[in-house]
Design a protein that fits this description.
Elements lengths: L6 H5 L7 E8 L1 E2 L11 E2 L2 H17 L4 E11 L7 H14 L2 E11 L6 H9 L4 E7 L3 H7 L5 H13 L5 E7 L6 H13 L4 E6 L7 H7 L8 H17 L3 E4 L2 E3 L6 H7 L5 E3 L4 E4 L2 E5 L3 H9 L5 E6 L2 H12 L6 E2 H8 L3 H14 L3 E3 L3 E4 L1 H5 L1 H8 L1
Parallel strand pairs: 1-4, 1-11, 2-3, 4-5, 5-6, 6-7, 7-8
Antiparallel strand pairs: 8-10, 9-10, 12-13, 13-14, 15-17, 16-17
Helix pairs in contact: 2-3, 2-11, 3-4, 7-9
Length: 391
């Protein structure tokens, strides 16, 4: 069953390897949250200035590899921790080297408490038309436990300021299954966020990532997480609550009003080309998936030599590319287009995955329509088991 959104457009052109999307990583935060395993570092102005200069060089090195850009995502870290001047300069660098479509989706991740009217004005004047606020929870005590630097009132101030500045497409990130989180607390968070009427809501379950304070506490038995049954109930409650308020459940963890699906994220889920810029960023260009150097200093040093700061590459071919394409597309509630898969790989999906598909269909984890293969409602809760087998 297709949603009201025209996902067929984002599924098309799968054979086109020229990137029309760019991800830019800003790896600085005021502090690092206790659950976070992203490539982030404490903000220091001088280091940030040197980093942005290196990033400018990397943008120049990739200028010839981009098609007309349809999506730009500036993430982190906390891009909104940069000054208004630094943000303005970054957009000059982007537009001086890339041709940006007039209707491109341009997203900037923002941390509550790090945006002001001047920064929001710079973003808007440079074509940013989508903001993503990392809220996570609507209880100050929980935010403090997560290591977040903002309070609920600070989030509300940032959100309403963005609305006053004219932003009409805002995402709010949430996390459930937090330590000692009750269903009542999660229900409160969902309802409070719904009342703000954002166009998009991302709701993720907490994952214990190695080399994070939370992981160490969890291993030591000092972090008490909700039981798996409670986590599943929270996920089910999320789906029922958000869809009941008019949000379309278009990806495992993502919900949106009509015409507000995250176009940039659909590039990932459709396994299409995307240039990744910045320390630790990942990209996929001309069939090659690459990862940049993670450390800021070696990243800067590499670009001072005007060399791309790539640390690892993988040429995806054969079953590996097919499996990744299938796994990413299955994240969408629509699933994978059988026609587009066959167009991309010149064979039906059963050729590579027939035995697996039969098993998952028999277990009622997957279902196949005339046009798509997708997770059943039950399969959503066991998606990771399917993905592990595919990998």
């Amino acid at each position: 069953m297709r949603t009201a959104e025209k996902q067929s457009e984002s599924d098309s052109n799968l054979k086109n390897k020229t990137a029309s999307s760019v991800y830019i990583h800003i790896p600085f935060c005021a502090t690092k949250c206790y659950y976070c395993a992203f490539n982030t570092y404490t903000f220091h102005k001088a280091q940030a200035e040197a980093y942005l200069q290196a990033l400018r060089t990397e943008i120049e090195l990739y200028a010839s590899e981009a098609d007309l850009l349809k999506t730009i995502f500036i993430g982190g870290g906390t891009p909104s921790i940069l000054s208004a001047h630094a943000l303005a300069r970054l957009f000059v660098d982007i537009r001086s080297n890339f041709t940006v479509s007039p209707d491109a989706e341009i997203t900037v991740e923002c941390n509550p408490g790090t945006v002001d009217a001047e920064k929001l004005s710079v973003m808007q004047n440079n074509g940013v038309n989508r903001l993503s606020f990392g809220l996570q929870a609507m209880q100050d005590e929980t935010l403090k436990q997560l290591g977040r630097i903002h309070t609920v009132p600070e989030f509300l101030h940032s959100y309403h300021l963005a609305r006053e500045c004219g932003f009409k497409n805002i995402n709010i990130d949430l996390i459930f299954a937090l330590p000692e989180q009750s269903m009542e607390a999660w229900h409160h968070t969902l309802n409070e966020v719904i009342s703000l009427e954002p166009e998009h809501i991302s709701a993720y379950n907490l994952v214990m990532e190695e080399e994070t304070p939370f992981y160490e506490q969890w291993q030591a038995g000092k972090l008490h997480l909700p039981p798996e049954d409670t986590e599943a109930d929270m996920f089910q409650h999320t789906i029922e609550t958000l869809t009941g308020h008019g949000y379309m459940h278009y990806e495992i963890c993502n919900f949106a009003r009509s015409n507000h699906f995250a176009k940039h994220n659909l590039v990932y889920w459709n396994n299409q080309s995307c240039i990744g810029l910045g320390a630790g960023a990942c990209g996929y260009v001309n069939g090659v998936r690459y990862t940049n150097i993670r450390g800021i200093t070696p990243y800067i040093n590499k670009l001072r030599q005007r060399n791309k700061p790539i640390s690892d590459t993988e040429h995806l071919t054969g079953r590996a590319e097919k499996a990744e394409t299938l796994m990413l597309a299955l994240r969408k509630r629509e699933g994978i287009s059988l026609e587009n898969y066959e167009h991309r790989f010149s064979e039906e999906i059963e050729v590579a995955f027939g035995e697996n598909l039969k098993k998952w269909v028999d277990l009622h984890l997957l279902e196949q329509t005339d046009t798509h293969l997708r997770f059943t409602d039950r399969g959503l809760f066991l998606a990771n088991e399917v993905f592990v087998e595919l990998m």
